[in-house]
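ok so dumb question maybe but i'm new to this and my supervisor (M.) told me to 'just get the structure for Enoyl-CoA hydratase' and walked off. so i did the thing. is this what she meant?? sequence i used:
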Amino acid sequence: TTDHETILVERKGRTALLTLNRPKALNALNLQVMNEVVAATEALDRDPDIGCIVLTGSAKAFAAGADIKEMRPQSYMDMYLSDWFTAWDRLGNLRTPTVAAVSGYALGGGCELAMLCDILLASDTAVFGQPEIKLGVIPGIGGSQRLTRAVGKAKAMELCLTGRTMDAVEAERAGLVSRIVPAGELLAEALAVAETVAGMSAPVAMMAKEAVNRAFETTLAEGVRFERRLFHAVFATADQKEGMSAFTDKRPPHFTHH
Ligand code: CO8
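this is what came out, is it supposed to look like this??
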């Protein structure tokens, strides 16, 4: 698509690839990037022909944070009245599964953006952190909450209070990323994962995503109840019949996303 300046959007079959493209600023996330990413992903989310969205940056930087130069002069009232960065929350509300492919710096808002995605793949060069404290601020796109849920208090507190970063190995051990991939293979692997997800039944993948996400919002008993309702609901899909018939027929399933 052509109506973006800070991102590139490509489609490959049922997969969409969104690349942050402000190389001179290491993909710093200004309001334009936010608005373009959110508008593009919401359009893809509405498109029944897209089953998974990959978000990536450059080899050097997934994103080096919110745009410090843009934020520097803002007052409290500027931030409050514009509800600065609120649109990023909408990325977490997409129904289509998302994959973050992180190479290089994922700092501050960049780390928060990666954590807004459903699957987080890191290259062996990835660097994660919430260094806002060094600038006299704190995380503002959910980092203090999502990092803590992902890696626990011990590491989240240390990272947010000292600003130190984690390499890919530490991030994987801590549970922030699902896997580490050699830098040269990151994008191909992310697209392969996305193609796998996009090949599943779209409504069932949406329900699986919704069920996992509910674990972050509710008690175990309520979460299990929620899962059970969705489990019963998948029996209303044609894809459940197709998936189970394909198994018994010993052939690959052909999901119709209904
Ligand atoms: N914002 C704006 N510009 C940036 C940013 C950024 N976050 N990061 C890098 N850049 C720019 C640099 O200014 C530089 O531009 P120029 O050439 O015009 O000076 C260009 O990108 C290249 O950067 P460097 O020369 O610094 O590259 P290095 O390889 O030397 O260093 C680093 C790479 C270590 C990543 C370094 O750039 C850095 O430390 N960047 C800042 C990292 C950071 O602190 N991120 C957190 C930002 S704050 C944040 O994200 C808060 C989110 C919540 C806000 C909530 C509001 C409601």
